[in-house]
Amino acid sequence: MTSAKQGDPSAIRSEVDCIENYASDPANNYSNYAPAIGSPEVTDAIHSGLQPCATFTGSLTGRNQVAQFLSPHVYPGGIQIVVFGGPNQAFLFGGAPGTPIAGYTAGPYVARFNPNTGQQVWKTFLPLLPGQWILPPSMAVVKGGWVDAVIGPTIYKLDPKTGAIVASQQQTISAGEPVDVNLDGFSVSPDAGGAILMKTQTRSKGCPIQGSNAMSFCIPHFGPQPNSTVIAADPVTLETIASIELNQPVTARPTLVSRMGKTYMYLAGATQGIRVIWNPKTKKLTQDTTWTPTYLLPGQGAGDAPVPLGNWVIFNSNAITSTTVPICAVAVSQTNANVWHRYCPWGRTLPAGVVSEQPASFSTDPENSMFFMQDWLVGGVYAMHLNQSTGVMKIVWSRPDWRTSDYFTSIGPANRRVVISQYLQSNFTSANANSGEWTESVLWVDGSTGKTLAQSAINGPSAPAWMITPGYAGRLYALGTDGTLHLFAVSACASAATPAFVPASVTNCSTPTSSLPQPIAG
Q1: Model confidence over 69-118: pLDDT tens digits?
Q2: Residue 285: what are its φ and ψ, rounded to 5°?
Q3: 48 CB contacts (<8 Å, ≥6 apart)?
Q4: 138: helix, strand or coil
Q5: pTM for the model
Q6: How much is the pLDDT for 2?
Q7: Mean pLDDT, range 21-29, rounded to an integer
Q8: Least trusted range by pLDDT, from 39-43, 67-71, 235-239, 400-404
């Protein structure tokens, strides 16, 4: 029987073989990352949300229940990121929350933990500049197994066995003071040089506010944000190779695409899409002024990170809250920014009193030409198909009942894809979003239909705007805001009389399928 601690250990050998083969193909955007299963936000250059080598340990046709276990170790300051270097190498970044935690002053750290239990193995605190602005960090396990962690203007390289800092380098920032910037969205160029490419989030000079809200709360009293900087850093020494100032501040992280011997970085600007070109031969960064699509409708807020899908880059909106216009998807041709298509499944006008916001990007399933849209304040999830030849979009299925602040993770082979994310309970409101207090579960659905396959027990809040992180043996990890790791694994029911796990999951062996919320076919 599957358990949360063990998952399905027999799956690990095939998972390792699968991910090593998958990562070896440059088309899968894993170049210069460690060939390991994990959160797609920190394992591939396009941050797709796709992890085809992770195992779904339940049944696609029968009933399932979910085993659950809480880590015995509590990580103070909350957990912001979980990454893996392999089935026995699990790491987390803690102590750098988006909203400051009262009484926590110890600062950010990286820890290695036992992936079976969540128990800490080692912990390393990262040095900070005096007065450094702290907000959610960046992290990845890169080629060679090194753990690269980033907070403020500094990149750190840690030994995975001991946690020792083997290299660190404050980057050359073109705009803003070092204490008022945060390098965001760890990405590695897919070329042979493997430069680290990142951009800064910025805080108004002199503002003491901590956390993500500083980007907007500082402006009335301390003036406008400085523009963002894009840097390229040497992957070994971490020294800055190139640094340029963009023409505006950008909140959301970048995504990378390899094209014609160069690396294209895509960003969602305040009004237009941004493309930065990294030339590994000349070692120069350039903002491409010929590719500046206007992706927002009047009234929409700037979007999260755009997601590449084939020759298209899909922009969303309302990472910055809108009170008038819902989220839309805009697919822009990488070849010609004047070729684009827009789809607005929630319509183009919000009802009075309704607010639209989504702190996490869309996620893509390139093999099935699909992507997934969500809005945690309006509510609802849409699975979309994008014609990779024409850019035309259509709804495949929708779930009006599903509300998530997180990204989606897609696991398993293309013809048996399972989509996973947080499921906020029906009593969730925008007041909960502001207070950080709500209840949630983890939901697994059939990627092709949206049908519920499994749903965990109901728990307290996990870190918003992140994702349910897949690991090995079919295990998944949620990052509790109280500093605990929640471990999950789905188990197929032998019969309706199969004993229930404790705590009991929402779906159990006696749950009739007809009692569950049903998807709406497109």
Answers
A1: 999 999 999 999 999 999 999 999 999 999 999 999 999 999 999 999 99
A2: -105, 140
A3: 29, 40, 307, 363, 364, 365, 366
A4: strand
A5: 0.96
A6: 64
A7: 95
A8: 39-43
Non-local (6+) Cβ contacts of 489 within 8 A are 2, 3, 4, 6, 7, 8, 57, 66, 67, 473, 474, 475, 476
For residue 178, the Cα-to-chain-centroid distance in whole angstroms is 25
Q: Which two tokens stand for residue 20?
A: 């090593």
DSSP for 475-490 reads -EEEEBTTSPEEEEEE
Distance, in Å, from the CA atom of 309 to the CA atom of 314, rounded to the nearest integer, reads: 7
User: What is the residue whose two structure tokens read 């501040």?
Assistant: 249
Tell me if 479 sits within 8 A of 80, measured CB to CB.
yes
d(CA 280, CA 243): 14
Residues 178 and 171: their CA atoms lie apart, in Å, by 9
Q: Cα–Cα distance between 190 and 188 in angstroms, integer?
A: 6
Which tokens is 198 given? 């990142």
Q: Does the pLDDT value for residue 420 go beyond 80?
A: yes
Domain architecture of the chain: domains with CATH: 9-521 (2.130.10.10)
